[in-house]
Design brief:
Elements lengths: L1 E6 L2 E4 L4 E9 L3 E10 L6 E6 L5 E3 L7 E6 L4 E6 L8 E10 L6 E5 L3 E6 L1
Parallel strand pairs: 2-11
Antiparallel strand pairs: 1-3, 3-8, 4-5, 4-9, 5-6, 7-8, 9-10, 9-11
């Protein structure tokens, strides 16, 4: 099995910063895409940012120039640096990972349990 564990969420004032981490563990041969999503109350889960194993990144327009995604392939960990936070960034942040457990096995998507980010005005 594979587990993803997020950390780093919390309460911060508008304009502040948080660094989220997500570590994958378990039976892992390789991880291709890793990403962060968020879900605010009453809204659908939305993409925040993704990063490939080669370091290619993609961001939602709403977070470009404020958030930065990075990963440490040796640690199977993805990070999200969130700067200039706004009240509308308040949400539960989830990480996911496209994991291959065997060299010739299928790729499966795993999700973390989520970490709450609350930005006060």
């Amino acid at each position: 099995q594979v587990q993803l564990v997020e950390s780093g969420g919390g309460l911060v004032q508008a304009g502040g910063s948080l660094r989220l981490s997500c570590a994958a563990s378990g039976s892992i041969f390789s991880i291709n895409l890793m990403g962060w999503y968020r879900q605010a109350p009453g809204k659908q889960r939305e993409l925040v940012a993704t990063i490939t194993s080669g370091g290619t990144t993609n961001y939602a327009d709403s977070v470009k120039d404020r958030f930065a995604i990075a990963r440490d392939n040796a640690k199977n960990t993805v990070y999200l640096q969130t700067d200039s936070l706004k009240p509308e960034d308040t949400a539960v942040y989830y990480c996911n990972a496209y994991v291959r457990q065997l060299r010739l096995g299928p790729t499966q998507i795993y999700w973390g349990q989520g970490t709450q980010v609350t930005v006060s005005s």
